[in-house]
Amino acid sequence: MPLVTMRQILEEAAKGGYGVGAFNVNNMEQIQAIMRAAEELDAPVIIQASRGALKYSDLIYLKKLMEAAVERHPDVKVALHLDHGNSPQTCKQAIDLGFSSVMMDGSLMADGKSVASYEYNIEVTAEVVEMAHKHGVSVEGELGCLGGIEDGHGAGIAIDDDSHLTDPVQAVEFVQKTGIDCLALAIGTSHGAYKTMRYDKDGKALPPRLALDRIETIEKNLEEAGYKAFPLVMHGSSSVPAELVEEVNKYGGQMKKAMGVPMEDIQFGIKRGVRKINVDTDGRIAMTAAVRKVLWTAPEKFDPRDWLKPAREALYELIKGKMKDFGQAGHGHEYQPISMADMAKKYASEAAATK
Hints:
Layout: H1 6-16, E1 20-24, H2 28-41, E2 45-50, H3 51-57, H4 59-72, E3 78-85, H5 88-96, E4 101-104, H6 118-133, E5 138-143, H7 168-178, E6 182-185, H8 212-224, E7 232-234, H9 242-250, H10 263-270, E8 274-279, H11 281-297, H12 304-326, H13 340-353
Parallel strand pairs: 1-2, 1-8, 2-3, 3-4, 4-5, 5-6, 6-7, 7-8
């Protein structure tokens, strides 16, 4: 089965009322773990690569790894997505390589650090939509800015700064003027492991305060504007499980106390239109814990396979849990894939109908 467009995966998720995990990758072991979990659970899935991942792995290596994944798991409906594309040029590069989905993050300037104007965001996002849809490629846009920095991407906005959250009124206009297929919201989540600086009297980390009411308002506003069941995206959605942090530290790590987004908050969003949930940090922690355990308990080991295999297994187990919690498990067989060529025709037909 060839790659599936993210638009189709998210539209089907909207019909079924579930969310779909979008898991970041950098290497072969991560792709193997995610695809194995998806196949076993009959789950559609989104595999995404950030600009940092593409620089690390080199674009052509990642493309060939995904081709192998599709060949090895022909029944899995999977989209390959560019996460936080910083410019139309970066998105074009991903499209030319065969990605079935791209994100144009116009909330920041091309440096990936400076907060951009609303007008700039609309301009560059609409440019990518026009380019991508000709190839049947889905486009994600972002309105508002997240806190934190990951893979060098982020404006360094303080975790508790709510001045850059998504404006519910602007959300409708942004969708109308750009033509995006899904909208990433800024509701108080952040990139990285340290999503909150809140602690109770005993020093225990507390979850971040999320503006969950904005999800409801934005969903309502979009529906009233004619965008029923429009897919929303939640970035920075790792839960940072305390047991994984403890495992890292048990074997020589020095991670600070942290807490991510509680699963109940993510599931609240799924019930109100969030269809794509980005998870990166949790996978990193799970794999790091597994690697540290091997190297700490068996220091005589020197074969990378001795620690890469348990790292892959740890990620596989984590991904399975996420897929069940998001509700995507068991839905992979429910629809037939639409080719990117046919999706390009569909986009052209839709564009013609609006003229």
